[in-house]
Amino acid sequence: MALIAEAPFAFIGCSELQESIAHQADDEKELAELIEEVPLDSIHFHTHSYFLRHGLIEGTYPNDFAQWVVMQIGDHVLGERLAVLDPFDYPDLENLREELISIIDDHLSRSPIIPRVVFGQPFHFKRSRILEVPIGLKAHTLQDFRDMVADIDVSTIYFHMFEAHFRLRRAENDFSAWIRTSLGLTNLADRIRSINPYQGSLERLRSKLITACDEFLTGDSVKA
Amino acid sequence: MNSALDEYREVSPKGTVDFLYRLSDLVQGKSFLHLNAVRYGGGMSEVLRRLVPMMVSLGVEARWEVLAGSQEYFVVVTRMLNALQGRDDKLTDDMYQTYASVIERNAKALKLEADMVMVHDHQPAGLVDYRTNGCWLWRCHLDLAQPQRPAWAFLRRYILKYDAAIFSLSGFAQRLPIPKFLIYPSIDPLSPKNRDMSRSEITQVLDRLGIHRVKPMLLQVARFDRFKDPLGAIQTYRLVKRHHDCQLVLAGAGVMHDPEGEAVLMELREAEARDPDIHVIQLPPEADLEINALQRSATVVLQKSVKEGFGLTVSEAMWKGKPVVGSTAGGIAAQVVDGVTGYVVHSVEGAAFRIRHLLNNPGLMNRMGAMAREHVRRNFLITRQLGDYLTLLKLLPAT
Predict the structure, then answer these.
(1) In CA terms, which of A85, B14, B21, B224 is 20 to 30 Å from B29?
(2) For residue A20, which residues of chain B lie inside 8 Å, CB to CB?
C-alpha cells in the first residue's frame, strides 16, 4: 500500500514579468562595473531565471553574462570562466555578485585590451517580478507526486527547485524537503536534493525527477 | 472547460493551459481594455483578435476598442511612425494639431474606464490625457532606438503620463522615468498563417504561385525594402548556388505608393529575369495561406534584414520546423538560438556558409528544425503572451 504523506505537496507555478533597468554595458569593464551597481534582483535574473526562459533548449552557456561575452564580444575565455560558475556554491546573491566581478577583473588584468562589442549588441541589464500561482494540484503519495511532475508546467519545477534555493537558504529544495519530512524517504530525498538544477534545462530536470521517483517506486533504488 | 483556450492544449507546452486557468483565477472579474488604431491588418491586430476572446473566456472583462481617425490623421500617424523609426519624415505643427484633435474626439466617444488599459503604439497614445481610473500601459511594438528627435519629443510628453511602458526588446526602448517591461510578441499557431496544412493544400498554393519543389528552396518572406536586404539575399543565394542547385524565393507585400520599394522591386525583377531559379512573389496583404505554404515548403529560411522590428516571420518559419539563418537585426537574434535552431550571421558570406553547411547536412537541418519548433512552442506562442498579460493585470496595481 502506498505511503500517504503527513501533509500533501501543493504545487506552485510562477509567471515572470521582465523589467528593463537603465544600465547597459558595451565592454567587459563596464559589465563588471554594472554588475557591482545593479540591484541583486538583476543578478538573480541573469543567473537564475535564465533557466525559466530556457525551459527546453540549453544555451551553450548557462547564464546571460557568459552567453553575452561569447556571442556578442567573442571572448570565449571569459565566457568559459563565467559559465563554469555554479550559483549553488554561494550562500547568497551578494556572494555570487562578488565572484562574478572577481572573475571578470582577473580576466581583464591578464588581457592587454578591454574586449568590447564591435558588431554585436550591448548587454542590457534586466530584472523580473515573479508571480506565484498555486496550480491546484496536491500530491498525497509518491506516485501522485511523480505523475503530477510529469504533466505540470515547467515553471512549477523552476519555482520548487530554483526559487527554493534562496527561499529556504539551504541546499534542500521544496521537493526533497517534502519527500524527507512528509514521506520520510530519506534516501530518495537525498538523491533529489543532490540534483543540481544548474546543469541542464528544466525539461532535463523534470526527467531526472521522474527517473528518481520511478526507480524508487519500482524498487530499483535502495529504499529509505 | 473552455473552448477558446482549450483549443491550444495540443499545441502549447505541457501544463500551460491548466496553468493559465489557475493564473486567471487571480484576476477574475478585472477589466482590461486594449486600444489601437486598426481592427484588421498587421500582426498586432491578428493577435488581439484571438487574445481578447481568450481573456473574456477566462473571466477577464476584456475589451478592444479601435480609434476612429480621418484620412488626414492616418497620414500624420504614418509620418510619425516613419520618424519614430528614424526616417527623415518631418511633422508640422498643423499635423500635431490634427493628432490632438482626433485624440480628443475619440476620448469623448470611447469608454476608457478599466482596471488596466493597454494602449498600442503611437496612434492612440494621446488618449492618456483623458485617463480616469486604472493602470495605463503603453505597449510599444516599434523600434524606437533611433527616432527623429521632434517626433519622439512630441510623443514622449504623452508616454510620461503612463504608469509603465512595454517594449518587445530592451534595444527598442528609449530612456524613460517610468518602469519599462519587456514582452516578446507572439504568433497564433492556429491562425491561417500558422495552422497545419495538408500536402495537397500546399501543392495547390505553390502551383498557383508558380513554384515547384524540385530544387531545395531558400526562402525570405519580407517586404521589398532595403531594410530587409532582399538584394543581400540574392547575393547569398548566388554564393550557395555555386555548390548546390537550389532556388530562391523572395515573397513580400506589395510596394504601392512607395518609390523606394518600387526601385528595390525593379532590381529584384531584373535579377529574376536573368535567373530562372530566382522567384520574386508580390503578395497581397494578409496572404496568410500563401506564406504558410511557402514556409512549409522551404528547405532553409533566410532573414537577411539589416534593420528589423521584432521579425515574427522568423518564429513563423521556426514553428513550421525550419532552420532559420538570420542576421542580428531587431528581434531576429532573440528568436534564433545560434547553432541550435539555426544560425545568427553577420554577412552575406556568413549566411551562404551556414546555408551550404545545412544543405550538406540534412540530418542537422531536421534536428534544428525540430528544436526550432519546440523553442517557439515555449517562447513565442500566443499562450505565453496571454500569460504575460494576465501577470501584468495581477502585479500592476490600478491607480
Answers:
(1) B14
(2) 167, 170, 173, 180-182
Which three cell numbers mark B40? Answer: 484588421
Average pLDDT of chain B is 93
Interface test with B, best of A131, A132, A156 (most B CBs within 10 A): A131
Note the ipTM here: 0.89
Total domains in the fold of chain B: 2
CB B122 within 8 A of CB B77: yes
Cell of residue B217, nine digits: 528552396
Task: Find chain B residues with C-beta within 8 A of A16's C-beta.
Answer: 391
Would you state the cell numbers that stand for residue B303, as one nine-digit string?
A: 532573414
Distance CA(B152)–CA(B150), nearest Å, equals 5
Contact of A114 with A27, CB cutoff 8 Å: yes
- Report the predicted TM-score, pTM, of the whole model to 2 decimal places: 0.92
**Counting every residue, how long is chain A?**
224
Residue B194 within any structural domain of the chain: no
| Residue B192 included in any domain | no
**What is d(CA B47, CA B330) in angstroms, rounded to the nearest whole number?**
20
3-state helix/strand/coil string of B122-156: CCCHHHHHHCCCCEEEEEECCCCCCCCHHHHHHHH
pLDDT at residue A224 in the model: 45
The partner residue sitting opposite B16, judged by closest CB among A19, A129, A153, is A153
Whether B180 and B223 share a structural domain = no
Task: Note down the domain range covering B358.
Answer: 199-379
Interface size, chain A vs chain B, as Cβ–Cβ contacts under 8 Å: 91
Instruction: For chain A, give the mean pLDDT.
Output: 90
C-alpha–C-alpha distance, residues A19 and A42, integer Å: 9
Please give, rounded to a whole number of angstroms, the shortest distance from the CA of B304 to a CA of chain A: 15
